[in-house]
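JOB MANIFEST
job_type = single_chain_structure
chain_count = 1
residues = 439
[input]
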Amino acid sequence: MGTKKVETVETENKPKKRGRPKVSEGGVSTPKLSLEKEKKKPLKAIYDEDGEILSLDEIKAKLLKKAKAAGSIDQSDIYDTLSPFDVDDNTLLDLINFFKDSGIEVVVDTEEEDEDFEVDFDENKLALDVEDDAADFFEEDTVKEEEEEEIDVDYLGSEVKVNDSVKMYLKEIGKYSLLKATDEPILAKKILEGDEEAKMTLINANLRLVVNIAKHYVGRGMLLLDLIQEGNLGLMKAVDKFDYTKGYKFSTYATWWIRQAITRAIADQARTIRIPVHMVETINKMTRIQRQLIQELGREPTAEEISDVMNGELSAKRIREIQRIAMEPVSLETPIGEEDDSHLGDFIEDKESESPVDFTTRQLLKEELYAILKDLSDREERVIRLRYGLDDNRPRTLEEVGREFGVTRERIRQIEAKAIKKLRHPTRSKRLGDYKEKI
């Protein structure tokens, strides 16, 4: 699938960025790469023991040796190793096929989930005006800028599950051209003057940036389109608050607002039962430690072991509570099977309900008991029904039954004793004997 070529302008004395290679049906597409001796130090993998740069064939042999030892090679390692050289599409494709023909598995690189980026915005920080602390947030040496690369539908599809609606959206935003570095201050001035058209131009030109950030958060409980929508809200807020006089690129500034909007939405909307942001941070920290211990111990760690690694920050009891909180609720209406004709609730036993056998046995016993009570007088039958709650499952005391009949509790006790004696007669008790072991 072809992609729209967008002209980008690099600022003076700034090394040219290397766009991310793309894999599509037409082959491998990668930007032209050149060796930058002063601006970028090549990877160690392209040096020999004497410090001399290896040739392309020597690099191929070196990578093959490393791949055979590991049993596979990441596609990203191939790109990174060849990054200092000017290679074309056919060279990269031939190299990938070379490894495959040699029996080496080429692992297609995917964006790893950004686990280190936690939801760390509390309610007070949300009210923070970002430009007041711009110098702290946007130091050139510490902030990694998201590349405003062109969106390739096929390449994005290899990282996240892309449906038709996502593809339509990506094609739609591909109609908007990227801005030149000199355009941002001009648009920012117009926005300050209330120009709505300039505002929409700046927003549309950065929609790709939102997609690039949003795709890192796929798999955290929200659909990609929902993540993009929340990121767009953050982008709009960034446009309203951008101060071009600070000297920073808009994409650098907007990245923080987009991330904030997405992570806040995940905390608020991803779960059926909302978990507070501070608890999300605790869960993330505990999960990382738990995964680390699984690798070290080869089994699931106990709550006590996790507590020890956390230096007693959380007690074992508290860790168990947090583990219960972190569990995702599952709907009983979740479809089961390929035909979706069964639901999860159909396979879960209700341990509090009676089994059909017990219910039937109890009903037969009740019918037999009522038949035996007919052998008693009306007064005796009524006393037994009230005393044992046979009609409404609410047994009455002697006092309550006495008030209903207008006699003393002692008289009710005598009537009850006489009725029980009659029921214990072998001719009657034998009829209930078969139910004793079943109840």
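[summary]
The first helix runs from residue 56 to 70.
The chain is about 50% helix and 5% strand.
exit_status = 0
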